[in-house]
Specification:
about 400 residues; alpha+beta; seven-stranded mixed β-sheet; five-stranded mixed β-sheet; 11 helices; about 30% helix; about 30% strand; flat
Length: about 400
């Protein structure tokens, strides 16, 4: 899970006294923060049913977890083309990183449950002989908007829609989601009003605080037919400062108690829409969100004094820039280092933290303003995120498709 930026807002700590009472500032108090679950790249197999027995409750539960590991391994192996063969329980213990309990019933000597199993991606891929590398989109900030009773909200208070996005496991998604927890200054920076403001300058500042390159706005409108009765959710997958519609659909729950399941299903459908849009190239970042390329003034006059040239070169400071880059194999590491060394102003580029199949860190000694390094990378076809002395780079797609036409039909 990505960390939320710290923003000091003096007004948030103030208290205005009115008569004998006190009025708290907008972001004081309240129960609104929902931290996202683990966003690691583990393989996940969900909805595994087990029904086991044992001499006691603990033994029955352990037997159920063992059976869930075996069933989940067969499903995962078949999904990845490994044939679905079983492996020893000791091997499974080393591959499984977590057991997710969806629903369980524990008796004196019986255990019935619906479980999810998480497998370590690198070890599992190595055992099955498949690649663990998965192409991800640029980092995108999620602003979940919910409308209920004619009132819209995001992080002003805790909502079931935000909780559904926090529960969603992103390990198998091609989208690199940034899910703010909703506490601190989040209600002031990310709200319904902000989603309707197309100003690129302000969006660029907000996205920089969260380390994102663009914004996703999943919207749900909840309509209750009567208190305690059926709930209809109308979902819209939106993207970008212009709040562009990518797709929409509707789901129905029989009663309010089934609302969490309805929203979980809505998040998965939203993720499918966003993944399809990403594969089609429709989630390309708005050019207005890119940082302006610095204009370097040049003097056309010829300088003939060699001592002046030496002094000018010595006056340029050398900055250390940390560059994050996806390195699926050793070749990607070598090629990226060579590409960085080929940019004017780079004195050295070396890998300081190697993570094959993940994101490696490279330390670059750059002579001059680090903004010029960003401009040099973009000129050579790299997508660059972040700013200052911390950058994340990725190869830009070559082809850009036409704009996506929104689907205005609701489908149950």
């Amino acid at each position: 899970m990505r960390s939320r930026p710290f923003l000091a807002i003096a007004a948030a700590s103030g208290v205005a006294l009115l008569g004998a009472g006190a009025v708290l500032a907008q972001i004081e108090g309240g129960d609104r923060g929902v931290a996202a679950v683990d966003s690691s790249n583990d393989y996940e197999v969900g909805s595994v049913s087990v029904d086991t027995t044992g001499p006691n409750a603990q033994a029955a539960r352990l037997a159920g977890w063992r059976e869930a590991q075996r069933k989940a391994w067969v499903q995962l192996s078949q999904r990845l083309g490994g044939g679905g063969g079983l492996v020893p329980d000791g091997t499974l213990d080393s591959l499984v990183t977590a057991i997710v309990v969806g629903n369980e019933q524990i008796g004196p000597n019986r255990y019935i449950a619906q479980l999810g199993v998480l497998f370590d991606r690198a070890r599992t891929a190595g055992l099955l002989g498949v690649s663990s590398y998965m192409t991800r989109s640029p980092p995108l900030v999620v602003v979940p908007v919910v409308w209920s009773g004619g009132v819209g909200g995001v992080f002003e208070q805790r909502t079931a829609w935000q909780e559904a996005w926090a529960r969603f496991r992103t390990s198998t998604s091609e989208i690199d989601y940034i899910r703010p927890p909703g506490n601190g200054a989040d209600p002031l920076l990310l709200n319904v009003g902000q989603t309707e403001r197309p100003a690129r300058g302000w969006w660029r500042k907000v996205l920089d605080l969260y380390g994102g390159s663009d914004v996703l706005i999943p919207v749900v409108r909840l309509r209750r037919q009567w208190p305690g009765g059926p709930v209809i959710g109308e979902f819209e997958a939106r993207h970008g400062p212009d709040n562009r519609l990518l797709g929409r659909f509707a789901l129905k729950a029989e009663n309010a108690s089934a609302l969490p399941a309805l929203l979980d299903a809505g998040v998965k459908r939203m993720d499918d829409i966003y993944q399809s849009a990403s594969r089609g190239g429709y989630l390309r970042a708005d050019p207005g969100l890119n940082h302006p390329v610095p204009v370097v003034a040049t003097d056309t006059a010829e300088v003939t004094d060699a001592s002046l040239d030496a002094d000018a070169g010595a006056a340029l400071p050398v900055s250390t820039v940390i560059v994050q880059v996806e390195t699926p194999d050793a070749g990607a590491v070598t090629n990226t280092e060579a590409a960085l060394r080929g940019i004017p102003g780079v004195r050295s580029a070396s890998t300081s933290s190697l993570a094959l199949g993940g994101v490696s860190l490279m330390t670059v000694a750059f002579e001059g303003d680090p903004a010029n390094l960003r401009a040099g990378l973009e000129a050579r076809g790299w997508q660059v995120f972040g700013g200052g002395t911390t950058l994340r780079i990725r190869r830009a797609p070559q082809l850009l498709p036409p704009d996506l036409q929104p689907d205005n039909a609701l489908a149950g």
